[in-house]
Amino acid sequence: MALKRKGQNYYKRPKVPVEHTEFYPYLLKHLEVLEVRGYSKQTTNRRENSLRRFIFWCDERSLTHPNQITKPILEHYQRYLYYYRQEYNDKSLSASTQNQYLINIKLFFKWLTQENYLLYNPASELVIIKPVTSLPVVLSQEEIDKLLAQPDTQKTEGIRDRAILELFYSTGIRRMEMCNLQRRHIYYVTPWLPICWRTVQTCDTSRRC
């Protein structure tokens, strides 16, 4: 069974509409700064999605400008994230997801204050959720063998998929690190693989194959 190609059956969630709010010009400027400073497209998109969600929540409460936001309002939003239930599975957001939303908001208001759009930073003392540490789920040898046997190596796509699975298994490489790999990164003489952790192909670490 061949693995699905990237982009197949992928649902891209539409952007939350916030263009009508007074937040929006500041959001555009903030995203532009991120691009100028070399942040990856993925990081910029995550920041935008988090902020759009927060701005939409504010707009529902007639809060349309950054200078209307106070620490109690941010704490109210933090409680909203805590009690929020996802539509497709009725489960709460994980602590790491909640923290990611809150960190993006803290960085946004920090930037607003640094650029003198705000006189003070209402998010400066917002306390991030204490992360819950958990042990990783480890596959058994039987499960690993079954997984590696899934691609049909009689076909070109199956050989490709098997190579991807072998690389994941033998190096512990991350998904985006895999996506950023190019032929020039492969060293056939040494058993080391340079890892490009940004979309700009900056290689600063390596994994043993």
TrEMBL record:
SUPFAM superfamilies (UniProt xref): DNA breaking-rejoining enzymes
PANTHER family the record matches: INTEGRASE_RECOMBINASE PROTEIN MJ0367-RELATED, PHAGE INTEGRASE-RELATED
Protein name in the entry: Site-specific tyrosine recombinase XerC
One GO-annotated biological process of the protein: DNA integration
Entry annotated with the keyword Transmembrane: no
Cited Pfam families: Phage_int_SAM_4, Phage_integrase
Organism: hydrothermal vent metagenome
Domain Tyr recombinase span(s) in chain numbering: 134-209
Transmembrane regions: none
